Amino acid sequence: MENVVEFNNVTKRFKDFSVKNIDLQVKRGFVHGFIGANGAGKSTMIKMIMNLLKPDAGEVSVFGMDYKTHEKAIKERIGFVYDGNVFFENLNLKDIKRIVSPAYKHWDNALFSQYVEQFELPLNKSIKKFSKGMQMKASLAIALSHHAELIIMDEPTAGLDPIFRRELLGVLQELMLDGNRTIFFSTHITTDLNRIADYIAFINRGELVFNNSIHDITENYALVKGRTELLDRDTEKAFMHINRLSTGFEALTKKVNDVENTFGDSVVIEPATLEDIMFHLKGGVQHV
Ligand SMILES: Nc1ncnc2c1ncn2[C@@H]1O[C@H](COP(=O)(O)OP(=O)(O)OP(=O)(O)O)[C@@H](O)[C@H]1O
Fold first, then answer.
1. ipTM for the complex?
2. Domain count, the chain
3. CA of 112 relative to ligand 1 center, distance in Å
């Protein structure tokens, strides 16, 4: 299966934070969700995909090409949507189209008009007077109008009302019918991922914890609930993280068989949601 984005042992260091030794593959033809707590490194990674930041070590390639030699060819095939992507805020959409369209070989005026109509966007109103949702729609309309093969979005649904969020997910799903497109987007709204994502990459404190299919994640992780007295130094080894509550414990495991053998019917084992996994792994893994 072809990778449209590859990180090979990528490190980016800031003064107080680093993204470390990342190996990430983004497969063509799928929707990839990118999750992690505030400050985990998602935007940093996305900026490296877009060549807005350069790695200190390792390599990022997009469509099998390197930014050093093929920046234009790569950017031509990417649609980038992010919060605050309104670089021409005093202009209206008609002017933006005039400025942006010549930059793309595959710009499609009819498609742009179609999205403007579908998203009910005014052409003559200056972008700075758009609501947050309208700005996101405008950004998306531009990103989609040059037949981008790879859509990269940094928190595209943040701050959008539930109705438009669902509409947006519908638009993205339609885009995927093409079969050749790839979407990679960061989000804090895990229900959006359950709706449309095929793969989830999870970054925690600058380290990639996993990049797996939703199916594998659901199969691999489980949430275990039981009485705190069941825990001791040995039994705890079955868990990656334990949350002790006054009513009992709740723990994350990847060793469901071990848990069943150790605890039998004395615990409840449930499927772990993405939120459960993020919550439990946020503080780091205690046992693997
Ligand atoms: N240019 C920079 N200089 C120094 N530190 C930076 C820079 N850009 C990001 N950081 C730091 O890197 C860390 C990760 O930031 P990043 O924006 O990648 O996180 P994020 O996962 O996108 O977070 P959020 O979900 O809150 O948007 C933060 O601690 C941030 O302060």
1. 0.96
2. 2
3. 33
